[in-house]
Every structure is written in C-alpha cells, then in structure tokens.
Amino acid sequence: MKNLFTLLIAFFVSFPGFAQLRNLSLQEVVAMAKEQSIASKQAVTARKTNYWQFRSFQADYKPQLSLNGTIPGFTRSYIQVTQPDGTISFEQVSNNNSLLNLSLSQSIALTGGTVYVQQQTQRFDDFARNNTRYNGIPFEIGISQPLFRFNTLKWDRKIQPLKYQEGNQQFIQSLEQIALDATGYYFELLVAQVNLQIAEKNRSNNDTLYKIAQHKLSLGKISQNDLLQLQMGLLTAQKDLASAQQAAAVASLKLKMYMGSRDERELELEIPLEAAEFAINTQLALDEAFANRSAAVGFRRKLLEAEQEVQFAKKENGLNASLNATFGLSNQGARPSDVYMNPQDREFVELQFTLPIMTWGRNKARTEVAKANQEFAQQSVEQDKLTFEQEIFTQVTLLQMLQKQVKLTKLADNIAADRYQIAKERFILSDLSVTDLGIATQEKDIARRDYILALRDYWQSYYSLRILTLYDFEQNKKIAY
C-alpha cells in the first residue's frame, strides 16, 4: 500500500495539469538574490579585485627582494675595433658575459626615495683566448633620492586607503541595490498575480451573475439591456484573465532570471506586511550616510586627487634633480673566491638635475590648469554633497509618509471588499442595479491594486533609504556583510 501511494503521488506530480507551487516571501527573494544572482557574484568579484589592488599597494611599501641577471650572455661575431692610428679593424670575438645580482630594496614614503643593498657576481669567458675572469661586488649599499620632485609614494599613501574603503562600501551598496532591484521584480510579479486573482475572481463572478441574470430575465425582473451589459462584463473579464495570465508568466520569468533560479515550479508570492513602524531621525540619516556611503568617501578622494594634480604640476615644472649614491666593496680575479679576498672600496655619487629656463609660460599654464581643475572639483563636490543631502531628506520624508499611506490603503481595501460582497448579495436579491454592482466591482479591484502598489512603494522606499545611508533603522546599527 505504501508503494502504491508513492506511485500515485509521483503520477499526479508529473501530470501536466498538476501545478507545483513554490511559496516565497519578499525576505526570501531578497536573500536568494543576494546569494545567487549574477549581480551578487559580480559584487563579490569586484570586492576581491578591490582587496588585491590594496594588497598590491601595501606591498610597494615593504622590502623587495629580487634576483636578476643574464645567464648566459654568449656572443660570437666580428666587432668594430678602432686602432691607435684611427683606422678600423674588424676582430672576431667569442665570449660569454654572465651576471647575477641579488638586491634588497626599501621605498621611503616620506621622501619618495629608495635605499637598497645588493651583491653582484660577474663571469667573463673569452673562448678565443681560453681565459675566464670574475668580477664582483660582495656588498653594496645605495640610495636613489629624487630632489624637488613630486612624491608619488606620499600621495598614494593618502589616496589608496580611501579607494580601498570606497570599494568596501561599494560592495555593501551593491548588495543593498540587489535587494532594491529584487523588490522591484518581486512586486512586478505580485501585482501581476493579484491582477490574475482579480481577473479569475471577476470572470467567475461575472459568469455566475450572468447565469442568475438569465434566470431573472425569464422572470421579468431585469431588462434585456441589463443582461447584455452583464454579458459584456463576462467577455471583458475573460479577456482580462488571458492578459493577466500572460503578464504573470512574463513577470515570473523576469524574477527567476534575476534571482538566478532554475526552479521550474510556479512562484506564488506572499503579500508582505509593512515593517514595524519606526522613527527616522533625519540628522542621524545624514550623519550615517556621510560616514558609510562610498560617495562620501569619494568626496574626500576627489579633493585629494585634485590637490595631488596641483602639487604634481608645481613640482614637475620647476627644478628637478636626482641624487644617486652608493658605497660598497668590489674585486676581480681568476676564481670566484678571489672576489672576496681583500676587496677594494667602491664609491659612486651622481647628482642629475634639470632646470627649465625659458618655457614661454608653459609651466605656469600647466600649474594654472591644475589649480582650475582643483577649483572645479571642489565646486562639484559641494554640489554633489547638496544633492546627496537632498536625496536623503526626500527619502526620509517619503518613507515616513508611505508608512501611513500603507495603513490607509489597507483599510480602504478591506472596506471595498466588504462593500462589494454586500452589493453582490443585494444584486442576487434584486435590490441593486447592474450599474451599481459594476461600480462596487471596480472600486474593489482599484482598492486591491492600490494596496499592493502602496506596499511596493513602501518597500522600495525602505530599501532606497538603506542604500543611501547603509544604516538599518529597525535594528539601529550599520549595515555590514
């Protein structure tokens, strides 16, 4: 019997007319979209990219150990050799010149220079004369220091952490944007399903009322015109039903695609309740927005980048100099060990400079352009801040208004449904005209749709405020993932 029951269940489930339903709430749809949608995977990938870019930036300020060289450096050719009398002779050479250099370097963010220590070994094989020589630097310390030049390391240390913070906050915003988008698709399908329910109910009711009206016509209680009006209502309800079925199917496909769901079951969405009413402090919303949003971090980054361009124009258009200095030990010999036997001092000091003397105002023009761009950036940031504040103020006001509107539309929906039920019963008792019944039907449908649309506006406003502030006003805490 148990096996027979299982087979019967499998038969009915696989039967085409048997509709498999999957009930989902708004919170479940939002959670699924955040977890498995393409948009959520893209947000995760962007966060990883941001993380490794910051790690790369941090690595630039840590010691760098490297091994470089040339192995082998073989040459066999005729080369040009200038003779003492000025003539040229072409001599055959056959040699191998190999080099290995082990270096440990450290960047200095404060000055923009680099200090390093290195060890170098060189081997030269002259195959024509069957001779091998070694040259090497057992130890060398050096510094390369730009003078009066733009310090890239110093400015990167100010800007890159802001970019990293901006990227992290953008990840949170992306997930909240997914919640908002999923809410839009959710209510698109919910409205379609409500319209489908209304259409199915209206078709059923109009069919019943038309049959009752046929009976009343035979009794002489209504006119032929009233019967035709009810028949038109039935035809209209049938067309509305077909249109509602198509709209619901399209909306369902959109929602599944956005969630990244391959579930073939039909979705049946719950009508979400509004969140428990909570107070929203406008000043708190502004403070949290400027503390949490990537745009707020971007304001500071843009101002720093504009200032960086001004400093670059000033530094690179004037006196530029570079100091390179090394001190170490070096030696040569016929064997590798000879390099380390009584090595000699090795010193190198070089100061290179460039001083523009006549540029016909080019340097000043570049500096003035950078200053003008900085001023424009400051103005743009100020305008963006004002727009940012206005968006938050508008969204707070809108959400507070929608909290009240949802309650009113819900009450209107209940009243319209009760009024229609009374009108339907009165029509059956021949106590109400067809016109009045039609008005009650329209008011019922409008009130139902208005309630669902009010819920949609409320939840979209709710998630919009979360995006703008990255703050959960229900839990009174910052949003984090």
TrEMBL record:
GO terms for molecular function: efflux transmembrane transporter activity; porin activity. It is found in: Cell outer membrane. The keyword Lipid metabolism does not apply. Keywords: Cell outer membrane, Membrane, Transmembrane, Transmembrane beta strand, Transport. The keyword Transport applies. PANTHER family: OUTER MEMBRANE PROTEIN TOLC. Belongs to the outer membrane factor (OMF) (TC 1.B.17) family. This is TolC family protein. The lineage of its organism: Bacteria, Pseudomonadati, Bacteroidota, Cytophagia, Cytophagales.
